[in-house]
Amino acid sequence: MQLCANKLDKKDFFGKSDPFLVFYRSNEDGTFTISHKTEVIKNTLNPVWQPFTIPVRALCNGDYDRTVKVDVYDWDRDGSHDFIGEFTTSYRELSRGQNQFNVYEVLNPKKKGKKKKYINSGTVTLLSFKVESEYTFVDFIRGGTQLNFTVAIDFTASNGNPSQPSSLHYMSPYQMNAYAMALKAVGEIIQDYDSDKLFPAYGFGAKLPPDGKISHAFPLNRDSEDANCVGIEGVLEAYFESLRTAQLYGPTNFAPIINLVAQMAAHEMEGSQYFVLLIITDGVISDMVQTKEAVVNAASLPMSIIIVGVGPAEFDAMEELDGDEVRVSSRGRFAERDIVQFVPFRDYTDRSGNQVLSMARLAKDVLAEIPDQLLSFMKSRGFEPRPALSSSSQQMHQEV
């Protein structure tokens, strides 16, 4: 909302006044709690304050007819602000917007008692009032928005020969390697939000039989028509199978797989689908320029990218893609949203290098930003959640 005032009382000896407003929510027991302070406007009796946003909860605790008290003060450097006057309103009154009823007389009870001719200490006028609904991630999931989960696994030679125990791709009969663990931890949570449980899964950076062609986006199940695997178990199976036949090679290119998922996301722009790409990698990106371009393009689509770094490499480039500090840019264009979340797998192993780690913690940190990223896309496009689906499917999501 935005407010202005007219002809406020002059409080300063030399100048006019430096007015600001304080909003109070009235509590059940008759006390008042401050819910908002405007900025101070210097040296004027006719201030126009900046528009501000306040949760309905803070203003009136959801009770539209509850009294909202507003005090008008003259700011003083020493903190002993002078009281100019007060008025009361309610959410319901304010929600009528700008009209003759939303012009309030600012009254000072002390002056009223002393001066016979006292009318008021000025007026405050509501200039604009607008209510926006804030939706949650759960609202969209209940309304039927599907998460589509795609996996991409790094098959570059820097991972080490899969038949050697030192390799990050080593298939031990006794324990899962870091790739499988990261995949399982993240995938098992995401699969609850994906009703068909079909996950496209790809490898990149390998030479493939029969002709030794290098591929940066090959289906792990070797089906060029349909890269879907059934459930996380299906993805793991296809991954282990691919390790037996593909030759680890290079370079480490991310852009092809990001662009592949982006193409799918570009066909589903009406808010019913959201795409999450999980890239598990051991190393340094070879195509950083192209990857940044791909991320900037993908930021305007319904998609997020999770990168889990496995092994001991330096992951500086990954931190750069994770736009928490500085938004990713390419050729002068900044990403519309922050869509990349990077976590190093080693932060979740214990000191001895033991791979028995807190999978729940890994999954939680990896997926922490997805809800807000989905919401930022929906909000930017003005999408609202559909009404909740029937109770049986809702029950499934409540259990989640």
Report on the structure:
By secondary structure, the chain is α+β, with helices and mostly antiparallel strands. The chain folds into two domains: 2-128, C2 domain (Immunoglobulin-like, Sandwich); 137-399, Rossmann fold (3-Layer(aba) Sandwich). The chain has twelve helices and 19 strands. Strands 8, 9, 12, 13, 15, 16 and 19 form a seven-stranded mixed β-sheet that branches. Strands 3-2-4-5 form a four-stranded antiparallel β-sheet. Strand 17 (329-330) and strand 18 form a beta hairpin. Helix 5 runs antiparallel to helix 6 and helix 5 (178-190) packs across helix 10 (359-367).
Instruction: Tell me what the CATH architecture of the largest domain is.
Output: 3-Layer(aba) Sandwich
Reported by name, the CATH topology of the largest domain is Rossmann fold
- Estimate nothing, just give the exact number of structural domains: 2
Query: Termini distance?
Result: 38 Å
| Strand percent estimate | 15-25%
How many whole angstroms does the radius of gyration measure? Answer: 29 Å
Task: Provide tags for this entry.
400 residues; alpha+beta; Immunoglobulin-like; Rossmann fold; 2 domains; 4-stranded antiparallel beta sheet; 12 helices; 27% helix; 25% strand; elongated; vWFA_dom_sf; metal ion binding
Outline the fold blueprint.
Layout: E1 2-6, E2 19-26, E3 32-37, H1 56-60, E4 67-74, E5 82-90, H2 91-94, E6 103-105, H3 109-114, E7 123-128, H4 137-142, E8 146-154, H5 178-190, E9 198-204, E10 206-208, E11 213-215, E12 218-219, E13 228-230, H6 231-245, E14 247-248, H7 255-266, E15 273-281, H8 288-298, E16 303-309, H9 316-321, E17 329-330, E18 333-334, E19 340-344, H10 359-367, H11 370-380, H12 391-399
Parallel strand pairs: 8-9, 8-15, 15-16, 16-19
Antiparallel strand pairs: 1-7, 2-3, 2-4, 4-5, 6-7, 9-12, 9-13, 10-11, 10-14, 17-18
Helix pairs in contact: 5-6, 5-10, 7-8
Keywords: Calcium, Metal-binding, Repeat
GO molecular function: calcium-dependent phospholipid binding; metal ion binding
Domain C2: 1-104
